[in-house]
Amino acid sequence: MTTPLPDCDLLVRADTIITQDEKRRIISNGAVVIKNDIIADIGTYADMESAYAPIERLDMVGKILMPGLVNAHTHLPMTLLRGVADDLPLMRWLEKHIWPVEHQLTEEMLRIGARIGCAELIRTGCTSFLNGYFKEFTTGDEANQAGLRAVLGEGFFSFPSPMFPTAEDCWKTIRELHSKYSSSQLISTAVTPHAVFTVKPGDLEASYHLAKDLGLQWQIHLAESPEETAICLDKYGKRPVQLLADLDLLSPCTTLHHCVDVTSEEIALLSERQVNVVHNPSSNLKLNSGISPVQEMLDAGVVVGLGTDGASSNNQLNMFREMGLAALIGKVRQNDASAVNAQSVLDMATRGSANCLGMSELGQIAIGSPADLIAFDLSSPNMMPVYNPISHLVYASTGHEVCMTMVGGKILYLYGNYWTMDIKALHYDALRAKEWVVSVAKK
């Protein structure tokens, strides 16, 4: 009597599977077995077909199957401010254009901005993101509805803001947010002071201890530009990294965004303390903040992830574009064509970013990892011919070759169709949001 094959929920077949596992295996004519939202097995199509009885099948012949990308730094509702203020340095951009509009944001506008952001992430193959903004429950609810994974950080300053009179007034909101999503499969939280020039040392310490108490990542913008360093030196007589080090705020649960203006000694310190750093090439270039010494950090053993930052300082939430830029400017920074190579950039956008979220199980196709997958179409002319698929993902792609996005075994996007979002209704919401932004920007 023949023993029945074990069942599985879904068998996904593809010409090429880029696993991003520990060995960085690439499997030709492969298949991924999914059961209960988790990757149950992976191998050649022939082996998986003969070993399992799938309830459903998804044929991605002619495609690359790979882990969903992880955006380790963004402010999703800032899609509302995409193009509002361009071609300006960081501080003038913030103080004269962004903060005045942000102070008037309503819950409705935040939801629309987050919804637009979710649609863009899904379309360009991003399945998880680390966020920082205001009224984060709005972004959490929209991400949950769209089916994306999100780590939410309620932003705060030491000076009064429309959200909180003081930094400590944010602690209750952080705890409530953490409690709200404590049982969620998709949404979790982080603690998110804005920066060392906007949050006092005592508030930085208190927020860090809150993160430790709740078991959360602690994320902050740091050393984003020489101008920030100058402000920090003027206020505290210390550079940003050293300030956090002296406050004992550098640890594996710390995620630092940008780290453009850092010295070799500071990089060694970040490595020693096992700190996570998120590189944001587009935003850094657009604001003329500088080019982060990424290869030096990688060589020192620093965990480096990749992020887009908000769509108002990048104008896109496209992680494929971010990968290409990271590789190109990394070579210029090092004056070395071999620096920040394609594989290291893909590592940053997957495994590295996953660590920055405090979710090391993401960013790889491996047994036991969540079934967060994307499929990449090789039929467009810019992808022909293929010699090295990883090179194509980083240097040749636009991101719009993504033809399937899946989170936890659930399809969110397939061949032009959004399965969890009403994209036509979103278009009208965006037009309405534009009218609102124009009206408040004139005040």
From TrEMBL:
Cofactor(s), names only, from the UniProt record: Zn(2+)
Entry's EC annotation: 3.5.4.28, 3.5.4.31
One Pfam family in the UniProt entry: Amidohydro_1
Known role: Catalyzes the deamination of 5-methylthioadenosine and S-adenosyl-L-homocysteine into 5-methylthioinosine and S-inosyl-L-homocysteine, respectively. Is also able to deaminate adenosine.
Keywords: Hydrolase, Metal-binding, Zinc
InterPro entries according to UniProt: Amidohydro-rel, Deaminase_MtaD/DadD, Metal-dep_hydrolase_composite, Metal_Hydrolase, MTA/SAH_deaminase
Top-level taxon: Bacteria
Family: Belongs to the metallo-dependent hydrolases superfamily. MTA/SAH deaminase family.
Entry keyword annotation includes Phosphoprotein: no
Protein name as annotated: 5-methylthioadenosine/S-adenosylhomocysteine deaminase
Cofactor binding mode and count: Binds 1 zinc ion per subunit.
Residues noted as binding Zn(2+) in the record, renumbered to the chain: 73, 75, 221, 309
Start and end residues of each Amidohydrolase-related domain: 64-412
Enzyme class: hydrolase
